[in-house]
Structure prediction request, 323 residues.
Amino acid sequence: MSEEKYLQLNNGLKMPIVGYGTWMASEEEITFAVNEALKVGYRHIDTAPVYLNEKAIGNILKEWLSEGKINRSDIFVTTKLPPPADRLDLVELTLRKSLEDLQLDYVDLYLIHTPFTVVLDEKGEFKRYEDGSIVVDPRTDHAAIWKEMEGLVAKGLIKSIGISNFNLKQIKKLMEHCTIQPAVLQIEHHIYLQQPELIDYCKSVGIAITAYSPLGSKGVGALNKMVGVERELPDLFDVPEVKKFAEKYNKSPAQVLLRWIVQKGISVIPKSTNAKRMRENKDIFDFELSPKEIEQLNKLDANVRIVDFAFFKGVDKHPEFPF
Ligand code: A2P
Prediction:
């Protein structure tokens, strides 16, 4: 197993470049998987309240920390402000609930999960129009939410703050109003959705990028089906160039997909609940794609968004969509 590699954030803190993603893993799966991920050597764990697994992760972290198997400073934990909590009165409360569930005194990184706000009904469920689409509040004041998050850094509850799923226009606007610059932008990023303009801008102003769905998140198909959306998702493992490089370097297609991202200085958070694949996804530092091979993979960009929020039916009516 290779030694830990980091990205240095704009506040001087270090984030392990390969993290462990936990989206679409149930509480039960995650209890096994996070324990296994820590055993395999992952020290960066990415979660969110909407993944419904913070409590299970918290239990495992507690076990590892209290038994002295890891120190708090050895792990980097990210969680997120969920779409219904993009409201000034909810930011601190929501973070504190995450901290309680994770059984931590602080998180290393707190992201605004989406640039859109989902409105809840009296029962605390997503408010919906008659056709089933969700009610989205387009008036979210990102600058005001950000100020709240800055306050939580000052209180010691968060080490670094960032954003997720924001588009270029939204980031530039936020940059005009922030005191603490976003440390990280987390976005969908893989060979078929590269967003070079967005990434170049972030790099130019010192915002680190974390790539979610680096392997193509096949599980999104099931989420889409639940809301009646039938859509064929691309299979990134089956792309000829990816297979060719995998064969050349005696690596798996997944390792080539991850190596291509990491070699560009971007962090990845692949999700797997299988111990062998978890190990594989971390073992990507003993080979190097040549500049020509990187370029060949760059050329595959097709602007194909897998996480298009179809499972949040109605979000496309937001005036700033797509994110
Ligand atoms: P599994 O959990 O059974 O390993 P993403 O990180 O892009 O969301 O992709 C996660 C999906 O990719 C999951 O379905 C996961 O399945 C699968 N996966 C993760 N790592 C690998 C790997 N090394 N090889 C093949 N499939 C993988």
